[in-house]
Amino acid sequence: MMRRLDVVELLHLLGHELRSPTGVLLGYLRMLQEGRFGSEADRQRILDNMRGPLARMAGLSDEVARLARWLAPSDRTPALVDARELIERGVGSAGALLGRPIDAEIDIAPGAARVSVLERDALEAALGVVIQATAREAGDAAVVARATVRRDQAPAVELMAGPLTLLPAPELTLSPDEPDVFSVTRGGMGLSLVLAVVVLDAHAARVWNVAGTASVAGVRLPVAAEEPQ
């Protein structure tokens, strides 16, 4: 699994994500211990300011636990899910994370293709996180999620996300020989992108940065040919 991130990179990323909230908390604690805040209101303000770093550390702990669960051997039973509905919910998840809607261009009819899914919520969340990371890179530019079923290679649901001006032409896609290159090291994303890539890997998906830019991402999910056994 973890094709795109080895253990050393993972530990480096985890250390980096822990460094900031830990440093902030230690700084506030030192100031409180030294009595730099004379009034109760000042002390309460500092305690309130500590909630953010503490919540971030709790979030990292949850991400590590979920990552360990996906990396461990599992006997999850796959189920077939409608591809259009899966993409719609993934796009909706990204919009909720960003606090703004993501335009969707889904050229997949309801019931036209299905995807074999181990955990539907986890896969929808993974798609949402990939779109979220792409939108963050794009800044204020409007981001579009474009999805279709491609049958020029092994049949797959292909999702492209990024600013409309940067999205590749419909006929451009990832070739079977082209390596998957996708950056999971993004500011403010914690381990969520690592978890998303691991979940996508578990579903035999490919995820990559299109045209060498982190502002455009592509995901290919195999189309299920038959009912999973």
How many strands?
A: 7
Spell the H/E element sequence: HHHEHEEHEEHEE
Mean pLDDT: 84
Please list the strands of the largest sheet in the order they lie side by side.
2-4-5-7-6
Question: How far apart are the first and last residues' alpha carbons, in Å?
Answer: 22 Å
Number of helices: 6
Shape, per Cα inertia axes: elongated
Largest sheet: 5 strands, mixed
Radius of gyration: 20 Å
Which regions are unreliable across 5 or more consecutive residues at pLDDT < 50? none
CATH topology of the largest domain: Heat Shock Protein 90
Notable features of this structure?
229 residues, alpha+beta, Heat Shock Protein 90, 2 domains, five-stranded mixed β-sheet, two-stranded antiparallel ribbon, 7 strands, 17% strand
Concise summary:
By secondary structure, the chain is α+β, with helices and mostly antiparallel strands. 45% of the residues lie in helices and 17% in strands.
How would you characterize this protein structure?
There is one protein chain. The protein is of the alpha+beta class and 229 residues long. It has 2 domains: 7-71; 79-222, 2-Layer Sandwich (Heat Shock Protein 90), CATH 3.30.565.10. 45% of the residues lie in helices and 17% in strands. It contains 6 helices and 7 strands. The protein has a 5-stranded mixed beta sheet with strand order 2-4-5-7-6. Helix 1 packs antiparallel against helix 3 (51-71), helix 3 runs parallel beside helix 6 and helix 4 crosses helix 5. The protein is elongated and about 70 Å long. The model has no long low-confidence stretch (mean pLDDT 84).
